[in-house]
DNA sequence: TCGAGTTAATCTCAGCGTGAGGACAACATG
DNA sequence: CATGTTGTCCTCACGCTGAGATTAACTCGA
């Protein structure tokens, strides 16, 4: 029986049908109280001229690194939360060849306008309700990403990835309201956030002045060290239908 | 500018470095009240002789179909729940070439002994605590799969995938106890399961006789049509540590 | 045949988190 | 200065929770 070293020496990677692996990123941010996703306009075939999620072929790097690279090609970003969403591999989802796409989900605080990347005619933050008719199966990927984001707000401190290093409880509440698409009771939200150990910790400081239209100075907080929220901030008013 | 059809005609899939995509399956079942995972012993290099998760290269099929095929090569199974876990693609995780593995999670009711498959010297159900030292990065994949399974029990009717078509509340409680590794309060569990709309529905029948060591005949239920549990069956006694 | 042990199913009770609403002070705007 | 807005805190009623006790049905061994 051949040793493992001898086996590997005689192994021919080209003996199998060619497949490719890409990463596509669902990058979310909040602009003017609205949940937005980063889209590019494809410059090349296939789907030239159509809007798509930023992404590209994986090179000699790890998957997480590839997703980060693709994201940085489109927009200048500082702190960003990145996690794998799932992988899409139906035969025929890409007309060129068999392509598997590992989708990622990214969250970042409010960002400036993106810059055009190499393989994209333009990039822009688009409100999620207007992000339809995307190339490939990106409509499906986006929908899956939104589902994941909405449910992760409930039981993880993910919302802190959407705001700056220091933030007020009101800003945090705006994040939940924007992602969930519904208003939240300010008093109850305040009580619940502060009652979850490790969610936020006080900086002792307050904002320099009150809100846009009045009100007292709000206390400032930063993200705590919790990885999971106990108890969770459950999302209200779900109909007990077929879910 | 060339049309999309002309572009595709001149496209050469072989112009990129060769990569491969595999599926690996974390198949879980409960045998004698113990949570077990399906493992195979690898017959060929690399990692010949080591235990591994069942899996193999994806052919011209979809990812879900590939996972189902790999599973059926190892064990005879009837009803099975299958879902994608995540994708592992670190360079170097397979010594042959760049291999991306799409991991799947499978749940099935108590099954008979598995059969040996094509590329496996043998297959066996192994209690999860004894499933260590696996080939490739399968230790990591298994750990991720167990995490997912444990948390999905809380908010989905997944536990019904571990039992037969008709089951008692006590059998369902055994599933939760086995997967979570802790005993549950029988009275509270009973009340909570029946209070969740769509989780289980009564068949009207009861078991033919009482339990092994006595007790009344238990009522029989089958799985309901709920996709998500409201309210969730939260897992008790989590320490509020660094989670 | 009868008692002991086991189990399914139900009930009770104190405690906690929840949603809803209100109170109040601090602040911006006109 | 008057008015409206906002952050923070409080109260209250309701529902779910965990823990324990209770009842009835059943198996097994003496």
From TrEMBL, chains A, B:
<feature type="domain" description="Nudix hydrolase">
    <location>
        <begin position="20"/>
        <end position="150"/>
    </location>
</feature>
<dbReference type="Pfam" id="PF00293">
    <property type="entry name" value="NUDIX"/>
</dbReference>
<protein>
    <submittedName>
        <fullName>8-oxo-dGTP diphosphatase</fullName>
    </submittedName>
</protein>
<dbReference type="InterPro" id="IPR036390">
    <property type="entry name" value="WH_DNA-bd_sf"/>
</dbReference>
<dbReference type="InterPro" id="IPR015797">
    <property type="entry name" value="NUDIX_hydrolase-like_dom_sf"/>
</dbReference>
<dbReference type="InterPro" id="IPR054105">
    <property type="entry name" value="WHD_NrtR"/>
</dbReference>
<dbReference type="InterPro" id="IPR036388">
    <property type="entry name" value="WH-like_DNA-bd_sf"/>
</dbReference>
<dbReference type="InterPro" id="IPR000086">
    <property type="entry name" value="NUDIX_hydrolase_dom"/>
</dbReference>
<dbReference type="Pfam" id="PF21906">
    <property type="entry name" value="WHD_NrtR"/>
</dbReference>
């Amino acid at each position: 029986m051949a040793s493992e070293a001898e086996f590997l020496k005689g192994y021919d990677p080209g003996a199998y049908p060619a497949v490719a692996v890409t990463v596509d990123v669902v990058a979310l941010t909040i602009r003017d109280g609205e949940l937005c996703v980063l889209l590019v306009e494809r410059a090349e075939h296939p789907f030239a001229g159509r809007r798509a999620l930023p992404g590209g072929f994986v090179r000699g790097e790890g998957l997480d690194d590839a997703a980060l690279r693709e994201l940085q090609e489109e927009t200048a970003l500082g702190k960003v939360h990145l996690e794998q969403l799932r992988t899409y591999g139906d035969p025929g989802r890409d007309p060129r060849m068999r392509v598997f796409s590992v989708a990622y989900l990214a969250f970042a605080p409010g960002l400036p306008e993106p810059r055009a990347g190499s393989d994209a005619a333009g990039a822009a933050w688009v409100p999620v309700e207007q992000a339809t008719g995307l190339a490939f199966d990106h409509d499906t990927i986006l929908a899956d990403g939104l589902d994941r984001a909405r449910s992760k707000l409930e039981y993880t401190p993910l919302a802190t990835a959407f705001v700056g290093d220091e933030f007020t409880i009101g800003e945090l509440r705006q994040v939940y309201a924007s992602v969930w698409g519904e208003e939240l009771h300010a008093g109850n939200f305040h009580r619940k956030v502060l009652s979850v150990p490790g969610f936020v910790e006080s900086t002792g400081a307050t904002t320099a002045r009150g809100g846009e239209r009045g009100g007292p100075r709000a206390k400032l907080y930063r993200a705590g060290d919790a990885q999971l929220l106990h108890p969770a901030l459950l999302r209200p008013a779900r109909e007990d239908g077929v879910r």
